[in-house]
Design brief:
Order of helices and strands: HEHHEEEEEHEEEHEHEEEHHHHEHEH
Bound molecules: zinc ion
CATH topology of the largest domain: Nucleotidyltransferase, domain 5
CATH superfamily of the largest domain: ATPase, nucleotide binding domain
Distance between the termini: 23 Å
Number of strands: 15
Radius of gyration: 22 Å
Strand content: 15-25%
Strand order of the largest sheet: 6-5-4-7-10
CATH class of the largest domain: Alpha Beta
Number of domains: 3
Length: 400
């Protein structure tokens, strides 16, 4: 129980913008002044918080402000994407201390990929200068679906040859860190809660625009993972009844009509992109997709029409989820987001508003992530902070 109260207090301090006094803490978390005092002593001794000046000019003693100590704890994050692998070192307040990006090595040999990632992690930690004893662990974000019990990636469609690889154990053995695994879309939502500022609070979905499209879910400040850690798989929401056939047997699912690979194929069919057929590799799709977005930004009408149509279709899927969960905000991000952001931020708000069941009660904000392009890796590291420090009813993460 003492530890739960400790996490409650850390959580209240980290959510406050400028830190908090012990008196304010007692009011907000509803614990006795004596308990607050004891726990803040422990946190100070562990260097997780610092005393950061005093405030108050009225009668009575000025109050000492408590803040998280950025250098009190660190976490490593790795985002294993089909195209790019990103590694970050994150401090306690969610700031990136060091980061690197490498092309994900040929995906069909997991052992070689894991050895390469482990070497990259060691290099990034060395470059950061961070004391290794202060690193709480390593988070790994991967495309889903994942198997929480075994720490495996289950036949991910975009990582051929990775059927049931025990990623968690393999990476832990190769690096010596304890490893948490989560889906990349859920990790992105966790990143938003730790490092995204105001857009990371309350009830929102994180729309992850990657090689696939999925969403991370946060309700009332708590990340929702579902029974098996695989919540947020929205790929088979039907958004275009006359759209292209999907591998599930329906037509016009999100994953058959709005993912980058499909938009690139449409652009090739329209004669505005050439090159190899889409689908050859993650890096090629990323390159061609960037070209498509640039053409649209330069005023190419066919390119703009493809992007705009995708915005309308994505809005249909988002509104299904928004109405189901009664969220207040949609946060967009992920590796393919920056090229889409301008049109999506213009087109989606009125579309979502028009189909919102609660539009007379509250608006639904649409924003781009404040976390930036490394959101998957930052989220992976945030998993470690969340697991170590966040007060949660459920602890469904994988731990080694
Ligand atoms: Zn489908």
């Amino acid at each position: 129980m003492g530890d739960f109260n400790l996490t409650v207090i850390v959580d209240a301090i980290r959510r406050s913008s400028g830190g908090m006094s012990r008196v304010e803490l007692a009011q907000i978390v509803g614990l006795s002044p004596q308990t607050i005092s004891n726990i803040s002593r422990r946190l100070l001794d562990q260097h997780l918080i610092i005393e950061a000046g005093k405030e108050g000019s009225g009668p009575g003693k000025p109050r000492t402000i408590l803040r998280l100590n950025p250098a009190g704890m660190y976490a490593l994050g790795v985002h294993l994407d089909p195209a790019v692998t990103t590694v970050v070192v994150l401090d306690l307040v969610g700031a990136v201390v060091q980061h690197s990006r490498i092309a994900t090595p040929g995906g069909s040999d997991p052992a070689a990929v894991i050895a390469t990632i482990a070497a990259e992690i060691a290099a990034v930690v060395a470059a950061s200068g961070v004391d290794q004893s202060l690193i709480a662990g390593l988070g790994l974000a991967t495309p889903g679906p994942i198997d929480l019990d075994n720490g495996t990636v289950v036949d991910p469609p975009l990582l051929p040859g990775w059927d049931r690889v025990e990623l968690r154990n393999a990476l832990s053995a190769a690096t010596g860190y304890s490893v948490l695994v989560d889906k990349d879309v859920t990790s992105a939502a966790v990143a938003e809660t730790w490092a995204g500022g105001p857009s990371g609070s309350g009830s929102f979905i994180f729309m992850y625009m990657g090689t696939g499209i999925g969403c991370g879910i946060v309700l009332n400040d708590e990340v929702v993972r579902g029974t098996s850690g695989n919540a947020g798989e929205i790929g088979h929401i039907m958004v275009d009844p006359d759209g292209p056939p999907c591998d599930c047997g329906q037509r016009g699912c999100v994953k058959s009509s709005c993912i980058p690979q499909v938009l690139v194929a449409e652009a090739q069919a329209a004669g505005i992109l050439d090159g190899p057929p889409a689908g050859s590799s993650g890096a090629e799709i990323q390159q061609q997709f960037s070209r498509l977005c640039s053409l649209a930004a330069e005023g190419n009408e066919k390119a703009s029409a493809i992007i705009d149509k995708s915005a309308v279709l994505v809005a249909r899927a988002v509104s299904v989820v928004a109405n189901t969960l009664d969220i207040e905000r949609v946060v967009f991000g992920g590796p393919f987001w920056s090229g889409l952001s301008e049109r999506y931020l213009e087109l989606l708000p009125p579309l979502l508003d028009a189909s919102s069941a609660a539009r007379l009660i509250h608006p639904i904000d649409v924003v781009g992530t404040g976390v930036g392009e490394d959101v998957g890796a930052i989220g992976a590291a945030s998993l470690v902070l969340e697991h170590t420090l966040a007060p949660r009813a459920q602890r469904l993460l994988l731990e080694n």
